[in-house]
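new request in #modeling-help
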Amino acid sequence: MANFSAELKKQTKYKAFLLTKRIVEEITQNTYLITFEEDFDFLPGQFCMVSVGDAGLTRKPYTLGRLNKRELAISVKIAGKGSEYIVKTNEKLNVLAPLGNPFIPESNNGAVIVAPSCLAEGIHLSERFDIPLIVASKTELNEKFVKKFKMRVFVGNDEYLNLLSELNHSAFDWIFVSGSRVMEELAVKNMPNKVVYVSLNEYMACGIGACKGCAVETVHGIKHVCTDGPVFRGDNIWQVQRHSD
Amino acid sequence: MANFSAELKKQTKYKAFLLTKRIVEEITQNTYLITFEEDFDFLPGQFCMVSVGDAGLTRKPYTLGRLNKRELAISVKIAGKGSEYIVKTNEKLNVLAPLGNPFIPESNNGAVIVAPSCLAEGIHLSERFDIPLIVASKTELNEKFVKKFKMRVFVGNDEYLNLLSELNHSAFDWIFVSGSRVMEELAVKNMPNKVVYVSLNEYMACGIGACKGCAVETVHGIKHVCTDGPVFRGDNIWQVQRHSD
Amino acid sequence: MASSKTLRLRTPIVIASGPGGFGEYLNVDSIDWSYVGAYTLKTITLHPKVGNKPPRIYATDIFMINRIGLENPGFVGLKKILDSGELDVLLSKVPAILSLGGDSFEEYVEITRLVKPYLDKFLAIEYNFSCPNVHHGGLSIMSDREEWRKLLKAIRKETDAFIIAKLGIESGFVEEMAKIVALEGWNGVTVINTIRGLIINSEGQVLLGGLSGPALYPIALRAVYEVRKVLPDIFIIASGGIYTAQQAKEMLQFGANAVSIGSALFQNEYVINKIGKEIVEFLKSEEKQ
Amino acid sequence: MASSKTLRLRTPIVIASGPGGFGEYLNVDSIDWSYVGAYTLKTITLHPKVGNKPPRIYATDIFMINRIGLENPGFVGLKKILDSGELDVLLSKVPAILSLGGDSFEEYVEITRLVKPYLDKFLAIEYNFSCPNVHHGGLSIMSDREEWRKLLKAIRKETDAFIIAKLGIESGFVEEMAKIVALEGWNGVTVINTIRGLIINSEGQVLLGGLSGPALYPIALRAVYEVRKVLPDIFIIASGGIYTAQQAKEMLQFGANAVSIGSALFQNEYVINKIGKEIVEFLKSEEKQ
Ligand SMILES: Cc1cc2nc3c(=O)[nH]c(=O)nc-3n(C[C@H](O)[C@H](O)[C@H](O)COP(=O)(O)OP(=O)(O)OC[C@H]3O[C@@H](n4cnc5c(N)ncnc54)[C@H](O)[C@@H]3O)c2cc1C
Ligand SMILES: Cc1cc2nc3c(=O)[nH]c(=O)nc-3n(C[C@H](O)[C@H](O)[C@H](O)COP(=O)(O)OP(=O)(O)OC[C@H]3O[C@@H](n4cnc5c(N)ncnc54)[C@H](O)[C@@H]3O)c2cc1C
Ligand SMILES: Cc1cc2nc3c(=O)[nH]c(=O)nc-3n(C[C@H](O)[C@H](O)[C@H](O)COP(=O)(O)O)c2cc1C
Ligand SMILES: Cc1cc2nc3c(=O)[nH]c(=O)nc-3n(C[C@H](O)[C@H](O)[C@H](O)COP(=O)(O)O)c2cc1C
Ligand code: FES
Ligand code: FES
């Protein structure tokens, strides 16, 4: 509660943008990359709340991304009616942005692992910090993407676990992980040697700190994903058994 | 209440039929005639309850009709989501029928006036009792229908009122009217010389006498459209000023 | 005080009082009545009621509102049907629960007395204390909690039948109401009834009635949960917005002994077979474990 | 007893306590605050509350359920924001209503006393007597009607502010509750609050929370109607499932003095402008007649 007043100060202005879809491409089964004609400023780690009209009672949170350092993009996994609307509509998308805190890494010696649903963010971070992009997917990726963007792809749970153990013994200072909660937890628990950052997925109603709906338990008590995150240090979310070397 | 027990006895068996659409034709703006591959027995005046899946919380009542003395048909005005579903779906229609009481006229010296939304019933009655078919519509009818079936068409309110006064002084014993409540009320009040029958349109939930939702006030107290109707004598519904000749 | 009676339903699926009328759905072919544990009849009051003036019902995509006003033939009507054997067709196919209502303390007690000779025909009596569509009785009988408690006591004294109180959520926290019911030795509760709502129909007419259908489901589920939490032993019939087998299962998992199908009949009465089949299979698979 | 204060809102549109947080929506560009009569702040309790454990919220097509648990910085937090002038940005753009809650009789009275020096900053105080998501206070303060009546009296004695009681529909018939509020000299009621519901989210977690959104609308409209029927003079804020200008108009027509926009903000906060514009025009056209 101490930082309640600090939080209030942190608030910046949010704007609702109308975005025209440029390209909608399938990344993998049920998951799409959408690029837009328009652009606005944001920083790595930030997200937006997409209005889905009558297809949902809340705006829907999506991590912002950028391709080739210029094209605004999001990636969307069809999870229900709202995401289906986002992928399929021919209308402009009404998007509230930029929300949440930027992710500012302590060095450029990191790597980013994303699920296909967070590929736009992955590409953005990789290009922006000039770090390796790794995609962990349950299903094979569309060949096009693998070629167009520099990335390593790991398909299936076993491959993912091997990857984590490889990275745990790598020279990277930090690893950024964005995907499902399970995937993020596995990353944190299986890379105890590393500083792992995770982008959390709590259910959001407002996205701007008003509703207090997106609470998560951290080792420092309740935090809110939309105003304290969405990116957290993994060891703030899950207890990590540090190995004594 | 006296006839509660009589009502119980009157019940017959109802069946849910799956009907395949044969033809869907526009009668007039927003109103369609639908014919079916399948058939079942019913009598003039009876109706069915059409399931509209998730497009509505109740089955929707439609008067049954028959074309050329053989083809099962209904006519449907698009009034909302349920009726839109009925007109547009490519699935078979699930239809509970036959419901309500048959209309048994006292003579064959009558005429039938229908709105386009009740055209299927109108054609049926006209063919069955060999009586004139009159269509009263707000908008022009599709030429095809006017040619295919023998009918007189009256477009607009003034024409309708003229028609009623003509019929009031005609030699017909009775006039059967099926359309909106307003249209039926006008008919009853403007043809005081005639026995006028009306097919009522109360909101229905069950269609079989269970819910007591379709109550109407008559000069003999509350009646239920689905089990006491749907056809009533007009002077049982509206007070009629009989002219003394 | 409680009668030692238990209620064993052949399946935990019941037809709700009101939507099912007085057995009319038996006239619809293709419903498999072996899936139904009990058919609750439309509420009967001491005196016949003609019900409210039309319009009585209106629906949107997510709820419907009805103001039937407990139209029913009264005890005389019930007696006639029972004496004449007319109801036997129904009773030969599916067990029934009698639903009783009233406009006053005395009426509730009186009808309880009058139906006594017929109780062997019914599994249980459900008392409708929560119909939002009548001016006397219904809502108001529960406005005065002490009066209502006395009524519960009087009815319990009058009959040793399996008696169930049907509760809404507006007269007080439903679990507190249910506790009173249990304390007075009643055997069960049905939660919930419709909630008072207002809608304007397409003709611009105002309907003050009871809300049922999908919008009710999460509220009814919560009510079942809360009642079960405070009363581990009472028989609970869950009522409110149950349209799918998944919802029926949730109700059972959160403490209901049976689930009631009401408004869902209007969308397609075949819902009985759909829910019935899945629930019966579900219970079999649970038993095996 | 009643203070002679009146509440004149520049428009009859208010932001609901909770969904609007502590003014965060002022950071969203393009909302025209001249359409808003008052911004009700998130409920403040005497002591800070961290709120409930996650998950706290889940929505379907027709309702959402939240179990925030009144997370708020307590009176100390409120005091800090007020003393530091942080809230002045908000107050310069839109008048505000303070919402207060508590876990006990004493807490309600104590916070009423503590906020006194700040009351010139607010149009009114809304007392949240109906939050379904806290264990003490909220629901239970209303379970004991006599206790609650005493509390109403005590608060009224403590302040001559324009005080509004926010009522749910589960502690007793809402019009009966409202009558008590009026009898104790309060100035207004907000009807309704969320209704207790239960939902299982996509992860299989059980959320016991308050139901808001579209499913609430017909119930809230009815509550407004019933309260207005028995209390011609009380100030009524309508809350529950208002998403369109049409609904806002209906609420006003059935007796509300103002309408509250809550969950609709989450679908698209632009709803404020949409409803605001139409309502302002509607009222102008009414005036002309
Ligand atoms: C900060 C953040 C960033 C995200 N970024 C991405 C992204 O880049 N790409 C992507 O594919 N997905 C992302 N998600 C998840 C995405 O928001 C949900 O998949 C989406 O909201 C589903 O909406 P729906 O109507 O299709 O789903 P529903 O049918 O409503 O539900 C399907 C699933 O989505 C979750 N969900 C639904 N609504 C919300 C909501 N308002 N807030 C959070 N979760 C919800 C549900 O819990 C459920 O697990 C992000 C979530 C958060 C919180
Ligand atoms: C006995 C009877 C016979 C009918 N025959 C015909 C016919 O042959 N052709 C035709 O076009 N229409 C007929 N109707 C009217 C038809 O049932 C409605 O237009 C239809 O139900 C609209 O459904 P919806 O979902 O499209 O409408 P909604 O969007 O739900 O409402 C649009 C209008 O339809 C009415 N309506 C909606 N549901 C019902 C219902 N369950 N029962 C009654 N009215 C309802 C509403 O009151 C409203 O006026 C008949 C009605 C009755 C009672
Ligand atoms: C048309 C209609 C009539 C009803 N009549 C009665 C009644 O006579 N007695 C009663 O106890 N409940 C009555 N109810 C309430 C239902 O039994 C049920 O409790 C309620 O509708 C909620 O369940 P549902 O959403 O499954 O319909 C009626 C409901 C409807 C829709
Ligand atoms: C996330 C959330 C938080 C809420 N918090 C409060 C609160 O702190 N105090 C309060 O009086 N009501 C609170 N409410 C209730 C709303 O003010 C409102 O009465 C209710 O949601 C019904 O209106 P709606 O359907 O427009 O949201 C909250 C509602 C939601 C959805
Ligand atoms: S989503 Fe509303 S506070 Fe975070
Ligand atoms: S529609 Fe149910 S009784 Fe007529």
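bot summary: The mean pLDDT of chain B is 92.
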